[in-house]
Structure formats: C-alpha cells, structure tokens
Design brief:
The protein is an alpha/beta fold. The chain has ten helices and five strands, in the order H-H-H-H-E-E-E-H-E-E-H-H-H-H-H. Helix content is 48%, strand content 14%. The protein is elongated.
Amino acid sequence: MQPMDRFLEILDKASTPHDGAFRFGFGDFRVARQFFTTYLPPSVSRHLDLLCLEPVNKSFVDEQFNQRHSDMIYKTRLKGETAFLYLLFEHQSSPDQMMIYRLFGYMNNFWKQYESRHADVSTLPVVLPLVLYHGSQTWNAPKRFCDILAGYTEDFAPFTPDFSYMLFDLNDYGKDVFHQSTDALLHLVLMQFRHIFDDDMNALIEMMSGLLNQIEPSDSFDKFGRWVFTYIYSARSESTETLIEHASRAIHKTQNKKLWRIAMTAAEQWRQKMRDEGR
C-alpha cells in the first residue's frame, strides 16, 4: 500500500483530521521511538527497552471525547515484563481541566481489556501516561489526580488514587525540557502540529517545505511529504483550491521538483477524495 493511500485510509476512519494526522505520524516507528527516547525523563527511560517499541492498534478514548482526544499506546519491555506508554493527543484550543480524570478512565479502559484477555492475571502492566497538547492557550490543567479531589488532604493519601502525567505542550516546543529535536523527521512532525493553524499560510507552507528538504533523500521524504500537504488540505478552513494555489507558489520558490510532484499528487488525491464524498 502506498504511503498516501495509508494516510487517506486512516483519515477515513479518524474522528478529525488531527486524529488521523496524529495516528499516521506517531504510528511511524522512527517518530515514536525518537520522541520517547528524546523526551522521556532518564529516570523513566532507563528502565524501558525502546528498541522493541510496538504500537497497539486500539483506542481507549471514550466516544464522547473523540473529537478532542486521540491516543496511541505502545508496548515495550520493562525488566522482562511488558509495559505500555500511553500517549494522549489533546487537539482542542483550550486545556481540559479534567484531563487527569480522563486519563484515569482511559487507562482503566485499557486495564479492563487487558484483564479480560488474560483470565488468570494477578498483576497489571505498568502504563505510563503522556499528554501532547495542541491548543493555543497555555496549559493550566491539574497534573496530579489528588488536585481534582475536593477537600483532599495528605492524610487521605493512603486511601485515594494519585498519579500524574508527563506533559508536552507544543506551545513550548523548543524550550527547556521540550527542547527542539535534533532528529529532522521528528522535528518536522512536531512543527507541523505546532503551526498547522498559523495565520500566515504562505509562511507555514514555506517552512514545512524547508523542513522536508532536510529529510531528503531518506525514504521518509515521500511518505511524510504527502502527509504534510494532505494534513494542511484537510485541517485548515481555507478552500482546497486556495490551499493548493498557496502550496504551488511556496514550493516553486524551493525549485525542488520532487517536492512539487509530491504536493501536487497529494492535491489531486485529496480532490478525488472530496469528489468521492460529494464535497
């Protein structure tokens, strides 16, 4: 199956273009492994074998939240046991103040399924939660479960659940802990998510074209080149023809014929998808 066909297939099943783009981008082994290798705290990553990372083809998000939450879960190894990394993508403009509670529910959904498939289980696997935030407002939601429990005191700690999650706010990408990735492909993916709604569409397309040129001639160039432009065509509010016109002008400046072919192929396949759907 061609890379573009795969992304369109994912988009057909996705709740939103962001959901589809996230599943395609972070479904790539290199992107996912590089993300966790780069950004997991050393105190966590030293226990995990990230070379055997394996995506699990299942979502645990409750249906009522699938317009704003997407998730990917990855199986890995922990001291001879199986462990899981749970990456939740929050793609609304403002933080969900009950995110920690949502995570608790989604993780519980996973554990319930795990238990049902392992009838004789007496232990549950470790699930480490991470949140990748895509919104424009500063993240200000509680990060510890006990912070959403009214009247909580430390005296209750032995009797109440408590955990936190690792937060990666795309507004902070390039700063401090969420420093800019030195891996060109991961950097491309994170920059695409961070800037997809920028007002200056020409600047967006020129920037992404430049970043794509940095991963050429790897086999990821074609795959993620089409992903970049199809995500732009599907997620932004401008008409498809307006977006294609802007892409054409921006790519012309790069004088990269291969990138031009990729963008125009993506455009034609997106037009065909719109025609097939009567749009």
